[in-house]
Amino acid sequence: MMSLFAQVPVSTPEIQWFYLAPILILALGGVLLITLTSVAPVMRGRHISALFTVATGVLALAFLPFIAARLDGLVDPVAGQGGRPAVDLVSSALVVDHFTLWVSGLISVAVILVAVMLDGYLEREGFESPEWYALLLISASGGVILASAEDLIVTFLGLEILSIAVYVLAALHLRRSESQEAGFKYFILGALSSAIFLYGIAMVYGATGSTTLTGVAGSMTGRNAAGLSPAVDSSLVMVGIALMLIGFGFKVSAFPLHIWTPDVYQGSPTPIVGFMTSAVKVAAFGGMMRVFLVGFGGTFASDWRVLVLFMAGFTILFGSFLAIVQTNIKRTMAFSSIAHAGFMLVGLYAAASPVAIGDTGKRAVLFYLLAYTFMSIGTFAVISIVGKKGDGNHSIEAYRGLAKREPLLAMAFTVLLFGQVGAPFTAGFFAKFRVIAAAAQVERTEAYILAGVAMLGAAVGAYLYLRVVVAMFLDVQESPSTEMADSADETLALVEVRALEVPPATLAVVLLAAVVTLVLGIFPDIGSGALAEAALALVR
Amino acid sequence: MIPALAQSSVLAAQTAFPILPALIITPLLSAVAILLVPSHRQSEVRLVALAGSTITGAMAVWMMAAFDKTEAGFQFVVNEPWLTSMGLNWHFAVDGISLFMIVLTGILFPIAILAAVPQHDSKAYHAWIMVLMAGSMGVFMALDLLLFFVFFEVVLIPMYFLIGGWGHGRRIYAALKFFIYTMAGSALMLVGIVSLAFLTASRTGNALTFDVTQLAEAQALGTTAQRLIFLTFALAFAVKVPIFPLHTWLPDAHTEAPTAGSVILAGVMLKLGTYGYIRFGVYLFPQAAYDLAWIFLTLGVVGILYAAVVATMQKDLKRLVAYSSVAHLGFIVLGIFTLNTQGLTGSVFQMVAHGVSTGALFIMVGWVYERRHTRQIAELGGLQKPAPIFAAAFTLVMLSSIGLPGLNGFTGEFLILLGGFQAARWWTVFAVLGVILAALYLLWAYQRVFHGTPTGDNIDMPELKASEGLVLLPLLVLIVFMGVYPKPMLERIEPSIERLVAHVEANVDGFIEPGPVQVPERPSDAVTLTEALEEAEKKAAREEGEVEDSVDEEGREASLAEGETTK
Q1: I want to staple B167 with a disulfide (CB 3.0 to 4.6 A). Which of A226, B159, B238, B256 is the partner?
Q2: Coil, strand or helix: which one is B522?
Q3: CB contact (8 A) between residue A433 and residue B165
Q4: Whole-angstrom Cα distance, residue A54 to residue A48?
Q5: DSSP percent split of chain A into helix, strand, coil, nearest 5
Q6: Contacts B176 to A, Cβ<8 Å
Q7: Which of A441, A444, A456 would you mutate first to test chain B, the one with the most B CBs within 10 A?
């Protein structure tokens, strides 16, 4: 045997399995879950799939500090990463650095929280299927791949693994036609955007002759005074970058690629929407930051950041203003998530600016992702509870008098909503503050205007969250907009609210999210070491 | 030797107990305690709220006693790191400008809690009031720009719930309007704050800081940048004050708010705007404040006259008081943008005086509503007959709001006009008309509500209860005390104001504080100012007879007209 091995030349790249642990744990966890539930009927018991998923998420999370310690202990950090600790894996297909770890951590947390929320949801809806959890885990592994990919092909791979699992999840509520419709819509538009994205990769490859981010960045450095590089066809690169921006813009639901968001959010199973707003958004922003800041961060940054500037401004305005006229809470929150994506784009714009001092922009986006992960999962956990059996009770009217029936739930939801407003002493405030600060640091007129637009959008957006708060706390007797609130309707609504069943585990998710929102708002210094490391890892 | 020793002992006492954080934490803890009280023991909720606010108020008064009046700078400083990577600190301190705002907050809250009982949900109501108290305390002592912004915004949330949950009539509309209006106003201020911090950091090469004193000393901005950033601040404060034409949220919010909400809104929260102009607008952007002063002088004067005219036309007593607030705050804005010691000192004094007298007015209007279930002036009348003591107390409060010499309203208004005459003569000439108009609308309202023969339910108007009298008494005492003997307040306010004016003089080209009231031999202007004030009071007292006569005539005419219409 030994001699046989010795004769075969080793052509596969050396793989440092330890650094791949988060991806492997999440992906294998999903596969294992499906396999086990097929062969061992005992695995099909109540809560077991959820527990398995949570355990997988916790395991992935538990590896992160050790990987961080190993990274920091590296004697010779990769030279291409500007002296920051990073490890290239699988012949430079993936890179593990502190940025990867931050994104992996957020995705793992999202998996854990969504799995807990999903447990109560599936029990209420009468599904006993492990495939929800398996898809969740596989999608999460795709997200981690996306954020750690150092090769555009792997980026695409991660994007597809992430997305396809979520397309299925969106359609998985088999008894609701809206769910099927949402899944279908998401799939068609998602596939289109993936195709566009791939076309962009092809163009960039055609111009630069490389698919690795460092290769792409390296081939662009020789740009002359006229803005043209003798080695690179600038217009081809620009078109490629624009097409890839469309691909990412679709995933993060940025203007003008946000149209699908309200429809898909409205139709998809509520916990899955929580996953879309947290893990999918984190992964997409992670991938976007790595590709654009590392790959296109050098020469072409001044070109594409103008696009990001306009995208950011219009995304915030559209999200905030269109949310006002919605009556369905899931649609409202969809527009709110669009607005939040706009804020993160402001951070990305700042990160792409030629500012030598600090990396406020990158830190702003990463902190925003942290804050929004908790706030959005908590919010959709509440929506999932109030949605009731059939997942259809989503008008804002359904929240009327919630404070009387479920005071704890209503209080936690209020914290989450005020967090999304950006009220002081919540994580949302510091998320917005960091983004605005990053924009101000650019010290350009258009950046100031963008910051002003963003803040005005936030003020307008406050109305949509306050409407829900009004419904929960204040508006028990009469409706603010219509005076003709039917008294019969009223009692009906109250009876319905009274019949709310609140799974303790889901309530725990809501409370945890609310507590994190408050703690990060009062002690914003928590985790800022890791945040700074993660931001520094992205060197242009 | 001995004063030095005394001072050091004061300092020792200051370092021993962090009084400023305690002023924020005590109300917060009582809010938590309120939430922990079982729901069926509603009376204890009130007791906890009262105890918490009274202890906080007592601490504020104690702080005033321990305040070193010879020191113009900041005292009781607490400076702890908050978000180190962005240069944020928990930086709290008080000086003569913020001291009385904090004391006013400490006094008004227990009184507001005592003055009105909520109709329902006593627990949530009192918890929100205590959170509001903590926020109001914080906003007046924060010296980190972002910390200030945080408190400036955070007070919106409890007030939003108080108006929306326990208000009258169109309460939800008023609450939403209040929240969105104020939030939109301050949205750009956040951009201004971070721009100021980053621009200063990059111009001076220092580390990023949001510390107000450091930013004010640096003065690193160019003219355009300074003006633009000043305007973002000014917009936020203008909504809060509110300055004409951004005042439209105020009548709704004030009228629909529960009594305690109105008292706190008028007494404390409107002052956030004027305080902001002094502490941040003038201090951080002296050149811009000087260059653009004409805008605010004009808007202030327009506000005074406009609000007075509108107040005269009001049919709702509470709305009338609300508009009178707009007029009074116009005076304060006028005083601030004179940028001289008299005007600014008068403004700070008037902020406290307005808080006390308008607070008392709202409390009494609330009691009228409790007794008669209407605030319509037309449905009230002749209340003086069944309730003479009530009427007498109302008279005193109203006269202080008009600015009768010897009561607190006069001192501040006089100083503002004194400063205004030196810095902005013609604006002041028009502002003086506002004093006359104030007499018109308040006396006319008083006449319609309290004079004449009571009819209908007005005959059975209950008299002021002893308990209510006790609630009102501290405010009445303050009204008289501040009018008769303003010196203890003025001598604490003035050093800090002089320091501020000196800062403006040092940083504005060609600006020298005008004014004849400068006696170089004395260490402080306090004595001379007080003397000037006393003299002016004597003078005004001589003229008072004439004013009263004319008012009486007006009153007679009005009653004649009324008589005719009834015939």
Answers
A1: B256
A2: coil
A3: no
A4: 10
A5: 75, 0, 25
A6: 463, 466, 470, 480
A7: A441
Q: Which residues of A fall within a CB distance of 8 Å from B83?
A: 430, 524-525, 528
Q: Report the residue from B146, B154, B183 with minimal CB separation from A462.
A: B183
- The single-letter DSSP state of residue B81 is E
What is this structure's pTM? Answer: 0.85
User: Which tens digit of pLDDT belongs to each residue from A358-367?
Assistant: 578 888 999 9
Across the interface, whether the CB atoms of A473 and B81 are under 8 A apart is answered no
Angle CA B13–B16–B17, to nearest 5: 95
Which amino acid would we find at residue B23? L
Last residue of a domain, one of B508, B533, B558: B508
Beta-strand ranges (E) seen in B388-500 are none
Give residue-wise pLDDT tens across range B357-401: 999 999 988 888 888 888 888 888 888 888 888 888 888 998 888
| Beta-bridge partner residues of A422 | none
Helices (H), B142-285: 145-154, 156-166, 171-204, 212-218, 223-240, 249-256, 259-264, 270-276, 283-284
Whether residues B409 and B528 share a domain: the answer is: no
Chain B residues lying within 8 Å of A437, measured CB to CB: 86, 194, 197-198
Task: Say how far apart CA A323 and CA A103 lie, in whole Å.
Answer: 28
On whether residue B103 sits in a domain, the answer given is: no
b/e for B448-459, b at 16 or more Cβ within 10 A?
bbbbbebeeebe
B311 belongs to a structural domain: yes
d(CA A305, CA A310): 9
Please indicate whether, in this complex, the C-beta atoms of A357 and B202 are within 8 angstroms of each other. Answer: yes
Report d(CA B170, CA A418) in Å as an integer: 23
Q: Same structural domain for residues B440 and B322?
A: yes
Beta-carbon separation of B195 and A440 below 8 A: yes
Round to whole Å and give the CA distance between B166 and B124. Answer: 10
Residue A66 CA to residue A412 CA, distance in Å, equals 33
User: What range defines the domain where residue B551 resides?
Assistant: 510-566
Of A224-228, A506-510, B513-517, give the lowest mean pLDDT range: A224-228
Select from B459, B480, B508 the last residue of a domain: B508
Asked if A166 and A280 touch (Cβ cutoff 8 Å), the reply is yes
Q: How far is B197 from chain A (nearest CA, A)?
A: 9
Q: How far is A358 from chain B (nearest CA, A)?
A: 10
B444 and B303 fall within a common domain: yes
Contacts of B295 (CB under 8 A, 6+ apart): none
Q: Quick one: B365 and B439 in the same domain?
A: yes
Interchain CB distance below 8 Å, B194 and A451: yes
Residues B361 and B491 in one domain: yes
